[in-house]
């Protein structure tokens, strides 16, 4: 079964249209079916085209104007949690019920960073989708706490753009050309109580969500390994021992479980490198030599050979073809 299905509901498209977004153009560019079930590549194309033909604040306004009764199941579970930290945990746990994406919560020292990744991403998240995602998270936390919470900072992988608009909305420093798109909070906020806490509703909601999540968790082990490899891959080739340790498994158990699913660790590593290479090549911010280093290749020639095996062309030629494709949108 194909797990690469992102649902773009008619309700969301209608809200975007009310905000002045050029939904027909974006739908046509993505060749989106009437069912609203898109691949991640189609979904990203939709948002790329939307961003190019709509008001720049469309993602931020979508977050502000989405009402609680329009929330997805993961957001509802988060909103009715007892405190901010529990809300983030529930949001991350049940996010996969809303499509092939993962939300990571990284706590380092006195700060916590929240960022979302799409498992089948063909490249970086389109800027307006990033805006909508981070803004929706902040709005949910503000509604739950009843406070005008401000992040410590917002990290954005894009080049510097729309800075005044983003500063007005988020009310915090912005860090452009970051390694990820993330909302960074002070860790002390994790204990902030939620005025929207509803224990009775959670008693009904959580068991049903866990039941729906169980099949996904059972079949998502390879995706978990991919996610750990992707996080570990920053100028090194993540060893199977390090990945196993992060998953609280022995190396032998990790190899066995992957083998039972018909894949090897090397295949997972290659897939993650492949997707990361495409994501980085879609921007002009990182040159090919640096990409080779970030993906853990000893030299650029090794990266070029691997990329040619994946895509049938060189990294530079593939990047040039993406520029031509964008010019046609």
UniProtKB/TrEMBL annotation:
Gene Ontology CC annotations of this record: cytosol
Pfam family, any one: HTH_18
GO terms, molecular function: DNA-binding transcription factor activity; transcription cis-regulatory region binding
Keywords associated with the record: DNA-binding, Transcription, Transcription regulation
Domain HTH araC/xylS-type: 223-321
Domain of life where this protein originates: Bacteria
SMART domains in the record: HTH_ARAC
Name this protein carries in UniProt: Transcriptional regulatory protein
SUPFAM superfamilies listed in its UniProt record: Homeodomain-like
InterPro entries named among the record's database cross-references: AraC-type_N, Homeodomain-like_sf, HTH_AraC
Classification via PANTHER family: HTH-TYPE TRANSCRIPTIONAL REGULATOR GADX (PTHR47894), HTH-TYPE TRANSCRIPTIONAL REGULATOR VQSM (PTHR47894:SF1)
Native species: Sorangium cellulosum
